[in-house]
Each structure stands twice: as C-alpha cells, then as structure tokens.
Amino acid sequence: MLLGNLSKPFYSITDLIFPELCPCCQHSRPMRNHIICLSCLSDLPFTGHEKYPKENETAITFWGRIPLKGACSIFYFNPKGKIRNVLHRIKYEGRKDIAIEMGKLMGQYLKKAKEIRKADLILPVPLHPKRKATRGFNQSDFLAKGLSLRTGIPWTADAVIRTRDNPTQTKLSRELRFENTNQLFRVTKASAIKNKHIILLDDVITTGATLESFAEIVLKAEAASVSIVTLACGELM
Ligand SMILES: [Zn+2]
Fold first, then answer.
1. How far apart are the CA of 112 and the centre of ligand 1, in A?
2. Residue 209 has pLDDT above 80, yes or no
3. CATH assignment at residue 210
4. What global pTM score does this model have?
C-alpha cells in the first residue's frame, strides 16, 4: 500500500464519533470554519511557491517539457507527514468534505500568485472511469470545487476524459512517450478549453508525466495557456 498503515487502528471509529477532528493530527478540534487545527496549521510544510510561480520546484519540473504560465504546489509531501494523513483520509476514507476544505485552503495561497490567479477555468486531472468507479469519486474534483469556491474560477470535470489508467513510463524515449501520452486523455468539449488560461489540478505531483500529457492534450485543444497547481509535491524532485 502506497501510504502505509495508520499508526492508530481506531482512527476510523474516532472519525465517526468526532468527525470534526483535525485530519492532520486526529487529536485537536479545529476552530470554527477551519479544517485544520491551529497547531498543525503552523507546522505544515508550506512551499511558498505562490510567491515564485515561474521558478519553483514544480515549475522547474516542466522546464523544456511544457510552456507554463505558472506552477504552484502548496505543500511538500512527506511520506510520514501531516499532508500524507490528510490525503489518506480523502482517498481511502472517502472524505470529500476534507478535499473541498483543502481546495479552499489552496485558493487562499493561490490568490497571491499573480500569474495564475486570473485563470479562466480549473480542470482536475481525470481518473480513469474504472478507477473512479472503484473509489467512488475523484479526489481532484473536490479539490477543484474548493479551489473554485475560494478563487471564483469555475471548474469542470466534463471537458477531458481519461482513456488509459497507467501513467506514462518516464524511461521511454521522448518519441515513444509522445505516442504513449497521446492516448492517456481525450478532450470531449474543446469549446470549454479554447482560448482560455487553464489551471490543471492534481493532488500530488511526482514525476510530472501525467500532468505533462494532460497539458499536451489541453494545449492541443487550443487553450491559450496552462498553469499547474497541486496540493503537494515531493520534497526531492
Ligand atoms: Zn491538528
């Protein structure tokens, strides 16, 4: 299992009894209208990417691959950290409400990124329909919903579909990779994309291969420009 075992076996029971517990630490109750307790909030690994949307770890990942208006990951991902706990609750406990609140939190920081904040549309990276059926929802849709609520930028899950589940193999040659990624996504509503500045949204960025192919297909559908926004990025990319 990618995210390992929970350190406390009674977490899910606690969630049922005290659903408002902080998703990072599961100990404190956040203040009203907050998803994360103050203690965790002051301790989270914020990247500060929003201050440098063209020159940060996430932006650099795409240099020479995709022309971006800007890129921003809000947190560093640590396999033993608090953001991992949050993602675990969203993905494996089905906590859509936490995803929406995290999206709102992302929006709070993204508003400072002048290259990105005036985007026209948010597109969450689609899950393959089979995977979506298994999990019941796409976590990125709910991050997008929260981000949209806070920034006022609309979002849609209906413009692009995922046609294959496996991400691009990073070791393939550039030529083969291009052929490969051509089939990963398909635009179903080009009119929603054309001439717009699009935010491509994902939960965590690792190699960037999936987001690269997503960006390629969106630019091919004549988007004016693309930016990449993720909740978290690996610390040592
Ligand atoms: Zn906490």
1. 25
2. yes
3. 3.40.50.2020
4. 0.85
